[in-house]
Write a structure and sequence with these properties.
heterodimer; A: 303 residues; alpha/beta; Rossmann fold; Alpha-Beta Plaits; 2 domains; six-stranded mixed β-sheet; four-stranded antiparallel β-sheet; 10 helices; 14 strands; elongated; B: 229 residues; mainly alpha
């Protein structure tokens, strides 16, 4: 079955004095979760803000739930719940004030669900925002986004700075939100564990560019580490998909992307003994990607 | 479903500002009471200076505090991403801010203008010939506020807004001093009756036109913005 798209970004670019988002493509179907991974300053927040219509791209097109952004942002944002790490509520007011305010805007607001979330998050709706801890504030903003029952949830670093227990609560509630099979989530994080746990798709962003965007299984399955013994000082085969090499005497560890069953044979053919082929965690893939991107950015910077 | 959320945004800001409005209204009432008590007991020049201080200062400060809290602090305190994540455009956000700030300051300014006129002319403190000049003073104050409001809406910067307050204050003083010495105005100030000559009408109309132009220009500039966070 061909599902309608939750988000379709084509060739979006945005320039700042010290940063450029270049030719970003990003798309996923409704009912799925897309995790944006990348180091700080990679462009994740800029992408999410363009998706939300808060920033206008200089080129390219953005469609969210079928609506063109930013031109049709009112219609689109009626169906989006947005939570950003740097988003703040009104300090002098209570959670109840914010709930009433959101309820007055969204006729989809679900009072029962809001009460349930208050209990689950252990929040007192009569407490003023200035008295909330960071974790409570994140949970309060999450409550305000979820209880309006949006079709799309956009989270920018939702778990940053949270202790493990609160992080678990937030992730669990994100998972619960997916019980409605038409609901989609786009979220950014540099916590690869979070992304690995709940994403269907992963997009890796670095230096304002999308380096890879795929189904999670395919994404993780495409990476391998080969443990090699290089007894004769042989050179590595010239493969384009080698993303990292570590040497410790005769023992080498080589990380490759786009792995297939022919890869070990190519190393053996070059005179290297393949001792083991290991799968990588998303964290290891993240680090390999960042290191590779940094290493390849140096010649560009020098020129 | 596609109804504008401007009314909700305006209501939200009025609720957020309710304590500030109540506090400054109370201060203004106390100041009016002080002026009334002093009336007839102190020399006219002292009453004039006290009148400016006690009537203009609380309302001017209230207007500035409200525009800071509802607009500049929205960005400074990062509540703007929360608001802009709602179904609202930059144009609607600007409209909401204008609909909060202009009526609030305008209403209070109108009240203190009426009180000022009552003390000055109703109780016979000044000759009626100074009515046009007094009207220009109060209109000038409103234009100065509009300049500050529009600059704060466009830039949403604490530094630039504070700078605009300082410049608007100096510019208003210089402007009022200039028109006070304009022959067609000065000539009638010393007279016995109200004279709305063409110069007085033109200056008053120009003040209204400048305020309107600034508001329209602000809405236009805001509409042109591609980034709003």
């Amino acid at each position: 079955m061909h599902l309608p798209m939750a988000i379709e970004c084509r060739g979006i670019s945005k320039s700042y004095p010290h940063f450029q988002l270049r030719d970003v493509d990003l798309s996923f179907e409704q009912g799925t979760v897309m995790g944006l991974v990348g180091p700080n300053g990679a462009g994740k927040s800029t992408i999410l803000r363009i998706v939300m219509g808060l920033l206008g791209p200089e080129s390219g097109s953005v469609k969210v739930l079928g609506y063109s952004m930013p031109d049709e942002q009112i219609a689109a944002k009626r169906n989006i719940g947005f939570v950003a790490e740097d988003m703040r509520l009104y300090e002098s007011e209570t959670i109840a004030f914010h709930m009433d305010f959101i309820k007055s805007i969204f006729d989809t607001w679900d009072d029962d669900y809001a009460s349930l979330l208050l209990r689950r998050f252990d929040l007192n709706k009569n407490q003023k925002v200035k008295g909330l801890s960071h974790g409570q504030r994140v949970k309060a903003t999450l409550l305000l986004a979820l209880a309006r029952r949006p079709s799309l949830l956009v989270f920018d670093e939702p778990t940053t700075g949270l202790d493990p227990a609160v992080r678990r609560e937030v992730l669990d509630e994100m998972m619960n939100a997916l019980e409605d099979e038409t609901r989609s989530i786009l979220f950014s994080s540099h916590n690869t564990l979070d992304v690995e746990q709940i994403s269907d798709y992963i997009t890796f962003v670095h230096g304002g560019r999308v380096l890879d965007s795929r189904n999670k299984e395919e994404f993780i399955d495409g990476w391998r580490r080969l443990r090699l013994t290089n007894a004769n000082g042989a050179a590595l085969p010239k493969l384009l998909n080698i993303k990292g090499v570590q040497q410790s005497g005769r023992l080498w560890a080589v990380i490759v992307n786009d792995y297939d069953d022919d890869v070990p044979a190519q190393f053996s053919g070059a005179g290297l003994e393949v001792n083991a082929v290991e799968r990588l965690t998303l964290e290891e893939i993240f680090l390999a990607n960042v290191n590779f991107a940094k290493a390849n950015a140096q010649p560009e910077l020098a020129s | 479903m596609s109804a504008s959320i401007v009314p909700q945004l305006v209501k939200k800001d009025f609720r957020l500002m309710s304590r500030t409005i109540a506090m400054f209204s109370l201060i203004s009432l106390v100041c009016i009471g002080i002026l009334a008590a002093l009336f007839g007991h102190v020399p006219t020049w002292m009453l004039l200076n006290l009148g400016f201080l006690l009537l203009v200062s609380p309302v001017g400060t209230c207007g500035i505090v409200i525009l800071m809290k509802t607009n500049v602090f929205e960005k400074e305190k990062s509540t703007q991403p929360f608001i802009m994540s709602l179904p609202v455009t930059v144009r609607e956000f600007t409209r909401a801010k204008l609909l909060v700030n202009l009526p609030l300051f305008g209403g209070l300014w109108l009240v203190i203008s009426a009180v000022g006129f009552y003390f000055a002319f109703g109780l016979g403190l000044f000759p009626l010939s100074t009515v046009p000049f007094a009207a220009m003073i109060f209109l000038g104050g409103f234009v100065a506020y509009t300049v500050i409001l529009c600059i704060s809406l466009v830039f949403q910067s604490l530094g630039i807004t504070v700078l605009s307050i300082a410049i608007a204050e100096m510019a208003t003083s210089a402007y009022l001093s200039t028109i006070a010495y304009l022959d067609p105005i000065a000539h009638h100030v010393a007279g016995a009756q109200v004279v709305w000559n063409s110069a007085a009408i033109t200056i008053a109309a120009a003040q209204v036109a400048v305020a309107l132009f600034l508001i329209v220009a602000t809405v236009f500039i805001q509409n042109m913005k591609r980034d709003f966070i």
